[in-house]
Amino acid sequence: MQQAGPMSFLRTIFIIILIYYIFKFLARLFAPYLMKKMVNKMQQKAQNQYNNQQNTSNVKEGETVIDKAPKTSNSNNSVGEYVDYEEVD
């Protein structure tokens, strides 16, 4: 059976610090590659959305299109009936 002592504590602290610096080194090594890949992916997605928007519009140059939104009634009839009242002193 192993006892906890100052040497095992120092060894644990050393391992934690070592793992921290290894992770920091690897992050500096791979972060630029991952960021570049992510930015390229976002640019490609934006380009695809722009192209889809351009392809779906069948409007000729110089033509004006007005889209009217349908009027919908947003009243909630389940609240109840309005009743007038008079204030009594």
Give the termini separation: 87 Å
In terms of per-residue confidence, which ranges show pLDDT below 50 for 5 or more consecutive residues? none
Helix fraction by DSSP (H/I, runs of at least 4): 55-70%
**In one word, what is the shape?**
flat
Give the overall average pLDDT.
83
> What is the helix tally?
1
SSE string: H
Radius of gyration: 33 Å
Kindly estimate the percentage of residues that lie in beta strands according to DSSP. Answer: under 5%
Number of strands: 0
Could you say which structural class the secondary elements and strand pairing correspond to?
mainly alpha
Major β-sheet profile: none
Care to give the gist of this entry?
The protein has 89 residues and is mainly alpha-helical. 57% of the residues lie in helices and 0% in strands. The longest helix is centred in the middle third of the chain and has 51 residues, at 6-56.
